[in-house]
Amino acid sequence: MSVSVQEADFDVGAEIAALTAGNDNAGAVASFVGLVRGGEIEAMTLEHYPAMTEKALAGIVADARGRWELLGVRVIHRVGRLLPGDRIVLVVVSSTHRHDAFAACEFIMDYLKTQAPFWKLEQTAAGSHWVDARESDDAALRRWSDAQ
Amino acid sequence: MTTKVLYFASLREALGSSGEEISLPAGVATTGALRDLIAARGEPWSQLARAKNLRCAVNQAMVGFDAAVQAGDEVAFFPPVTGG
Fold first, then answer.
1. Sequence spans of domains, chain B
2. From the CA of B6, how many Å to the nearest CA of chain A?
3. Window 27-46 of B, Cβ < 8 Å to A
4. What residues of chain B lie within 8 A of the CB of A89, using their CB?
5. Domain that includes residue A36, residue range
6. Does the structure show a pLDDT above 80 at A66?
7. In the structure, what pLDDT confidence band is assigned to residue A105 with cuts at 50, 70 and 90?
8. Residues B17-72: tens digit of each pLDDT
9. Among A66, A69, A99, B39, which one is least packed by beta carbons within 10 Å?
10. What number of other Cβ atoms are within 10 A of residue A50's Cβ?
């Protein structure tokens, strides 16, 4: 299963090892780990649309596989209550050469940010509030359609 | 047959509802028309019409407000996503 949505934490090293095990054609592995930023935030709760989430992530992975020569892809997104410093999301991509791995990893994150149905509720000393979507995330997405 | 309608995140809180079953009246055949039908109930539902950058999905795929809706579909309305 290349895509998981779960409450549990994940082990980055174990995921990379599992993705590359038994395939010595891979010359590159790129990974991204998203973390809960601290500062004023005391906790964060991630809500999602369960029936749609894995489908949306699988669709994004399929798009990436259509654009680049990828050997393996692993995406894990956590849901539920998380604390500052906790891991939220993992993307690992393996490929023959580094360019495809770097590009696909960034592409998957940009699409995930704007297309996968997750919502963050931040808790601070002042109360809870839903995080607003950022225009910069939409701009990051657009460059993939401008580029090709 | 009815259409299942779901609400998420800040919209779910504002409406005080995570979802409902709706019988589509004749003439309501798109996500936009369904949104307008629900919003026409008055508060708090009219927030669906005012929500900035409202998004929607039909059968778990994100679509626009001109997308077709029919009985048996699952339609979701939600704010822009903020995962990652």
1. 2-78
2. 9
3. none
4. 83-84
5. 2-146
6. yes
7. very high
8. 999 999 999 999 999 999 999 999 999 999 999 988 999 999 999 999 999 999 99
9. A66
10. 11
CA A139 to chain CA mean position, Å: 17
Cross-chain Cβ contact B84/A109 below 8 Å? yes
CB contact under 8 A, A88 and B84: yes
pLDDT of residue A147: 58
Q: What is the dotted CATH code of the domain comprising B2-78? A: 3.10.20.30
Listed in sequence order, the residues at least 6 apart from A15 whose beta carbon sits closer than 8 Å to its beta carbon are A74, A76, A90, A92
Task: Report residue A94 as tokens.
Answer: 């393996």
Average pLDDT value for chain B:
96
For residue B60, give the nearest of A55, A88, A121 by CB distance: A55
Q: A-chain residues within 8 Å CB-CB of B13?
A: 130
Interface of A with B in 36-75 (CB under 8 A): 46-49, 51-52, 55-56
CATH, residue A40: 3.90.1170.40
| Interval A106-120 mean pLDDT | 97
Q: Is pLDDT of A40 > 80?
A: yes
Domain count, chain A: 1
Q: Pinpoint the alpha helices (H) of B1-84.
A: 9-15, 31-39, 47-50
**A81 contacts A9 by C-beta, under 8 angstroms:** no
